[in-house]
Design goal:
Layout lengths: L1 H17 L10 H12 L11 H13 L2 H22 L4 H7 L3 H6 L6 H20 L4 H18 L3 H14 L1 H4 L5 H26 L16 H12 L15 H25 L8 H24 L11 H18 L4 H18 L6 H8 L11 E3 L9 E5 L4 E5 L6 H12 L4 E3 L10 E3 L6
Parallel strand pairs: 1-4, 1-5
Antiparallel strand pairs: 2-3
Amino acid sequence: MIKYKVLSILLVIIYFIQTLCVSFGGIGADSLSYFGIAADLPTPETNLFPLGYPILLRFFKGVLDDYFWASKILNCLFTVSILLFSYLKKFYFRETVLLFTGKTFFFVFFGAMSEGPFIFLLYFLFYFLHQIFSKDLGLYQNAVWASLILIGMFMMRYSGIYIYLSILLYCFLMYFRIRKKIYFKALIGFTILSGLGIMGYLLFNFFHFGSFTGENLRGEPAEMLPLYLLRDLLGVANAIDPFIGIKPASNSMGSIIFQCLILVIDICIFIYFLHFYKKAKKSPIYYFHILLWVMAGVYAFSLLVSGWYQQIEEMSVRLMAASNVCLFFSFLILYFQNESSDKLILRIGCLFLVFLTLYNVKDPGNYLENKNKIQPQMVKFRHKKYLYNDEKNRVTTTIYYFPIIDKTLKYPHTNNQKGKLKESIAGTINPQIKWLKYDTVKDRSTVLYTSQLKF
């Protein structure tokens, strides 16, 4: 067990340091939206995103006086809390540590995104649902806690409704198998309480903002071209893969071939996982595993379909986060229950932890240094209302040299473009200046253009 304790400490250090070693600091477009909502509290102007994550950001910003550090400390607390809880409660500690070596935990606890608190709460939902399925005592208490956590998940991301739908479907499909189980009534109570909580939040949104989930603020979905459909399906299939989530933004033939090769790996992993999933029938928490599988499938399918009807990004590691964690966690539990040695899985986990770390800093930078360049300039732009990146045509290309084959590769990293960097840093320093996706404001004097910032 000592090796997992050491690895958990290394994980905390790596997770904390990595965002400081890239130029954009893990701040993306959605991060600026969350910072903007947090800055507007207690009178938010939009319900495009739920209020849970902005409330957390605002609280820690009040302590640290900086939104970047607020998001950073939150991610650190999520990481430490899960590991400590798992160790102290003896809740699959080895499995939990290995979850952190996978791509999903590595990604969602990297930047300022709502997936961080969402997956954090999902882990604790696992715990209380596991207690319901495995313990005879405290069933209703665990059901109440599970309800509160699921409501919290919905307040972090509206996609939490898909977790709720998956539980409803599970109860329907498994009704005749589990209706006589001691935990059945607690499970039904959990669905009722969490359903009431989610409905309450939706009604709050409707009466306060005039819409349930900001549906009137979302743009039309992109044209459903066969290429985009293929990329989405490949993204959903990649939910089974615990470690590899590389998805080039390019739509070139080379990119599609590469993604199809990843699909082959995904299929091989699924076949390997299936070998252990079949052994779940012998497990005393068999129905808990079935619930995890149903959650993974319903969540992935629901997001795929919703992406066809509203303007959201294509299926990726970020959107498939919950599905991936459900499948990987189920596999890890079954793996340790059926294998006498952990050498293989531990070595693979450590190998990919190193890979993910190196891949993440493949184009290293210094976020705090970049931030210090922009921060003094923001004082004279306090009166600006909007922020727009007008330097999208200025492309910075990173050149990689491969000595063995004597070839070079030029790649324009999206988050490392000068205009994008200025936008993310300026929006973090003063999120009350709302970032614009399109330059549509007629009064240009109210807009801070990234070209006005020196970098």
